[in-house]
Design brief:
- It is a single chain.
- This protein is α/β, with parallel strands linked by helices.
- The chain folds into 2 domains: about 130 residues, ATPase, nucleotide binding domain (Nucleotidyltransferase, domain 5), CATH 3.30.420; about 170 residues, Nucleotidyltransferase, domain 5 (2-Layer Sandwich).
- A 5-stranded mixed β-sheet has the order 3-2-1-4-8. It has a 5-stranded mixed β-sheet with strand order 11-10-9-12-13. It has a 3-stranded antiparallel β-sheet with strand order 5-6-7.
- α5 packs across α7.
- The longest helix is centred in the last third of the chain and has 25 residues.
- The radius of gyration is 20 Å and the shape is globular.
């Protein structure tokens, strides 16, 4: 049987998994990303973790297709991680080549996590029959991956498709790059949480989340409370859905996709966020596109989506 390995690099944990041709994750291994201060030490740890996974399949008839890596600030063209803010090793790190040098595998590929999700959706998820689509991931940040004519768009620099950094509110919230009003600052899970507290401060009164400590409240709590009628949470999700719908309508002008695939905890909660996003998406599309572009919730399993996306880089 032919198997691939996918690795998801997070600021806290690195998780790798063995994936079969149908997109089933057969075995996983993980270690603490934050335990390694240098790129060399981290590459040693990653290679060791992958070797342990491969060793667990010894004695079986396995052909290894390769290793795909999804990484923050990953550049698919160069196989490098470039100035990732949540990793201890800074600068431009040629991680794909470093891992190739440590493992006997036919392919080692690296890209950013949102591009990996797009490739995973294409190979294992709901985008199998789509050649033109945009994947949008709502997590701690907001990432996106763009497919045109059946190919992932990387751009000249390797960093194409950064919808999360589009400005949607002039003079709005500051982002880590010193820019203001980016989509990520409002429609990511982090942004939704911030909007909730801003609306709570403005409107006051009790909410369905008052039993939780401030540090415990996350975007899924807000989405769930909105779906059962809490007024402040409902207002938060309406505001988020409006901005997201308007931004996706603008993004549609660039590539005229057949669909947007939406992934992440706030999306999985469904309800008001999706309904409002769809309403304002259709409202702000130009007439040529209205009623023609779908908004589809990702079919990737939330727990394994990052691994599947990474594995799909070499499975293709």
């Amino acid at each position: 049987m032919k198997l691939t390995i996918g690795t998801d690099i997070g600021g806290t944990n690195t998780c790798s998994g063995v994936v079969d041709a149908e997109g089933n994750v057969l075995k996983k291994a993980a270690f603490k990303t934050a335990d390694y201060d240098t790129a060399e030490a981290y590459a040693d740890a990653l290679a060791g973790s992958v070797q342990e996974l491969m060793a667990s399949f010894e004695g079986k008839s396995v052909e290894w297709a390769g290793l795909g890596i999804g990484a923050p600030n990953g550049n698919q063209r160069s196989g490098t991680i470039e100035h990732a803010p949540n990793l201890k090793f800074d600068g431009i790190v040629p991680l794909a080549q470093m891992v190739r040098d440590r493992l006997d595998l036919p392919k080692v590929e690296l890209t950013n996590d949102a591009n990996a999700a797009a490739v995973g959706e294409k190979l294992y998820g709901a985008a199998k029959d789509y050649d033109d689509f945009i994947m949008v991931t709502l997590g701690t940040g907001l990432g996106s991956g763009v497919y045109v004519n059946g190919k992932l768009v990387c751009g000249d620099s390797g960093f194409a498709g950064e919808l999360g950094h589009m400005s949607v509110i002039p003079d709005g919230r500051y982002c880590g790059f010193g820019r203001r009003g980016s989509l990520e600052n409002y429609c990511s899970a982090t942004g939704i949480r911030r909007t909730y507290f801003e609306m709570l401060a403005q409107r006051g009164g009790p909410t369905a989340l008052d039993h939780l400590k401030v540090g415990e409240i996350n975007s899924k709590h807000v989405a769930d409370a909105a779906n059962v009628g809490d007024p402040i949470c409902t207002a938060t999700m309406h505001f988020t859905g409006r901005l997201l719908g308007e931004a996706l309508a603008s993004a549609a002008l660039l590539t005229a996709p057949a669909a947007f695939f939406l992934f992440g905890g706030p999306v999985q909660a469904g309800g008001i966020l999706l309904d409002t996003t769809h309403e304002f998406f259709e409202k702000h599309l130009i007439p040529t596109y209205r009623g023609k572009i779908k908004l589809i919730v990702s079919a990737l399993p939330p727990g394994d989506a990052a691994l599947l996306g990474a594995a799909a880089l070499v499975a293709e």
